[in-house]
Each structure stands twice: as structure tokens, then as C-alpha cells.
Amino acid sequence: MMKKNEKLLNINVEPKLPQKKILSEQYKMVTELAKESEKVFWIIDFDNINKETRETKKGNKTPLQELKEFYDKTPDNTIIIINNPCLEFWFLLHYEPTLKYFATYADIKKELKKHLSDYEKTEKYFKNSRQDIYQHLKPNLATAINNAILTGSFDFKNTHKGLSEMHIVFNKLGLN
Fold this sequence. Notes:
By secondary structure, the chain is mainly α. It has one domain. The chain has helices at residues 2-5, 23-36, 47-55, 63-72, 87-93, 105-112, 123-126, 133-137, 141-151, 167-172, and strands spanning 40-45, 78-84, 163-164. It is globular.
């Protein structure tokens, strides 16, 4: 919806719709896109990585360890953006500053609905013709950027903190 609303942006958004892929598939896609693109933003929701890391059998490589390996060898033109737990944390930052850790989308949903009472995690909601999510949130973008900056940067040693690095996307695209 950002591309639709910001007519001057010459960007492609891939995949067209969010797809659940394992980290190695995401990394492969990102590295392929990096070969043909000027800049790639890899946006990662962290709730599943934390969950799957907790559930990994002792002695096996965790998704967190796998992400760290990918993170360290990501192409130079790729910027990794982490939302912890998920993109909805970024949406919440449009309305209030918080560092609260929400383990899952379900945990953050109640807080977000205080501000977006009709929020649904569906394509229909995101692309609502009356007022898409981007148009709805844009008046509070400066607030969200400031609040996101206060959450700090992702730290592999402290993965249980509320965080959104989405402000980096807006700063790099000049939309702040």
C-alpha cells in the first residue's frame, strides 16, 4: 500500500503477499533479489523465530542461530529490518511509545485494537478501498518513527524486547 500511495516511489515489493517461508528460503530469495536490485529490505517478524528457537531440541541449530549466520553474510545492498514480535508492533508505535515485549501477535492484538478497533490481519483489511492501512497510519508516521528509534536496534543477545526497525525503511526511502 505504501507503493500505491507514494506515487513517486520506483520500488517493487516482493513477494506480492506475505508468504510463510522458512528462513533459508527467505534468505535465498533475498540474495537472488540482491543480485538484480539496487537495495533490498528483508523484513522479518520475530515471533516465529523466538517460538521455534524455544522448541528446538537441544543440540540442533536454532532458527536464531541460523538467522545470525544469514545476518552476517547478507549482501551489502540488503538491509534487514526486524519487528519483534511482528509488524503489528510497528503499527502500535504509531499510537504509543512502548518497549513492552509481546511474545506473539495474539499478545499484541489486544493492545493494537485499542487504537485500530477493526484491525484484522487480512489482505482485505490491508487493502480496504475506503482507507487502506497505509493511509490510515500515515498521519502518525513521524510519531511511529520516533517511537521506533526509541526501541533501539536488534540485539541477538536480547531477543525478548519489543522492537521495530521499520523506521529504517522510511528513512532510506526519504518518507520520514
